[in-house]
Amino acid sequence: MISHQLFNDGTRQWYYFGRDPNKPDTLIDTNQYLVVTNGEGLLLDPGGLETFPAVVSILSKEIELSKIKLIFASHQDPDIISSLSLWNGLLPGVDVYVSWLWSTFIPHFGGGQALKSVPDEGMTFNIGGTNDLTLIPAHYLHSSGNFSLYDPRAHILFSGDIGAALLPPGESKFFVEDFHQHTQYMTGFHRRWMPSNQAKMKWIQRVRDLKVNLMCPQHGSIFRDQDVIRFLDWFEELDVGSASK
Amino acid sequence: MALNDTYKLIEINQKTLVIQHNLSKIKPLLRKTRYLAFNAKFTVDNLHMRGGSFSALVKELNNIVIDLEDLLGEVGQSSWEMSRSAATCSNFNHRLHLMVQTLRLTAEQSSSHLGTLCKNLLDGKDWIRETQQERSQINAMFRANTAEKKLWDTIQTFRAQFIEEMNSLFLQTRKLSILVNKINWIAVQQINLIAVTALVESSWAGFAKSNIPVLSKNIRELARKITDVEHLATNQLLDLEARLHQLDKPVRAYLYANRTYGQRHDQSSAL
Q: Looking at beta carbons, which residues of chain B come within 8 Å of A86?
């Protein structure tokens, strides 16, 4: 698994973990992110049970494990949070935040600890003496209780499954380099997995008001600068919820 | 106990479910026995049979059926607990597997000994026991690396939880064996005894041509069927206990070494 620092201003760091060459083909590739503020860590979509060993071993090079204070799951899928029981074992008492809608479903992955509920309108995280990391509603994109996370300091948007691309084997560009070529890996996914054009437009409207330098999805390549705008334009035009007859 | 023994625990869970399913076949047999007891009572009332002895026998038969039904309820609860324990054990074992894998990946670059230990564990070495030498070597290494220490501590916590659950699984298996033996004793000894007594009494009373002998024969037949089910369950339980013993051996050794074996043995004997 590779590790990549996306941002560092001395106070806050963003790390990416993913592209594990030893990952079995039976598992979809996932991107994990860690936001460190004044030494305290917020882990975004920590991943599935089977990717846990690779994630922890690489992550422990960037942060002392006991410094991870919060875990956030953008929604309930197994590739997002089925490692919950292992995280609870490793970091007993760590606060895990999920949409209130999923707070009693996700514990079925095990671990035995209560989760913290995020209200529909979103919230900010208090970590490392700051409270600017903001959860933005992304309901129905694709889950009925779903959030993106925005960092106004780093201008990074963690978008979860929005902007996800199912890259074929051998295609593992870290950043999107040719947006139009990249859409072939996103179209089917977004048409099938995103059920509501109305929800899509609301989210786009919210994100257009933000300054976003990097848009980081949970699968596939990361969007930079103008490619973020290109993605919003492309997404706006896409008729979602239309892949299945 | 090896980390790749998870499938054996899953197998134990599946076998517990089979035993539970087989034992549930006793329930309809008990319903039939109750029905025959009702018929016997009806016949006895119609024939105005001698004294209260027949009525007492029928009443006794009904009581036995009630006892058996209660026992079956306990068997259901106990086998459910067993199945849950086996599932939890396999879940713990898999979590341990992943945690050791995590430690191995983390240790690979910093500590060759810990990496080798993890590799051995993943390759099937018994993870319940560790030598004194291993323990002191590991403790010495942890002074240098916090992430590895944290992972090792988590593995120890998972191991303790696993051992506790294995202990519970072992105790539940013993309890189920005792319950099944009780069913056998009641079915074979008590029901048969009543059926034979009824037969003898009816011939003494000159009712050999009534349907009492037929009812008695049918009741004995049901007792035999209950016993057949119980025998099958007993054999399956013995097989399951043998498998469990194989997995449980290091757990017992660990508990013994930690001076908790006596307490556990006492618990088993108390059942």
A: 95, 98-99, 102
ipTM over 0.90: no
Q: In which domain, by residue range, is A117 found?
A: 2-237
The string of pLDDT tens digits covering residues B123-142 is: 777 766 666 667 777 777 76
Is the bond preceding residue A155 a cis peptide, omega within 30 degrees? no
pTM of structure: 0.77
pLDDT of the residue at B271: 37
- 8 Å CB contact between B61 and B41: no
pLDDT (0 to 100) of residue A155? 98
Q: Between chains, do B104 and A110 touch, taking CB under 8 Å as contact?
A: no
Cα A182 from chain centroid (whole Å): 19
Partner residue opposite A57 with nearest CB, options B95, B102, B154: B102
Place of tokens 């300091």: A153
> Searching chain A, which residue's CA lies closest to the CA of residue B149?
A65
Taking a C-beta distance cutoff of 8 angstroms, is the pair B260, B166 a contact? no
The contact set of A with B (CB < 8 A) is 49-50, 52-54, 56-57, 60, 64-66, 85-86, 89-90, 110
User: What would the mean pLDDT of B92-102 be, rounded to a whole number?
Assistant: 87
**Does residue A244 sit within a domain?**
no
For B91, the closest of A50, A60, A110 (CB atoms) is A110
* One-letter amino acid for residue B42 of the chain: F
A242 assigned to some structural domain: no
Number of domains comprising chain A = 1
What's the full length of chain A, in residues?
Answer: 245
Q: Tell me whether residue A243 is in a domain.
A: no
Note the pLDDT of residue B265: 43
Which residues, numbered 144 to 173 in chain B, qualify as contacts with chain A under a Cβ-Cβ cut-off of 8 Å? 146-147, 150-151, 154, 157-158
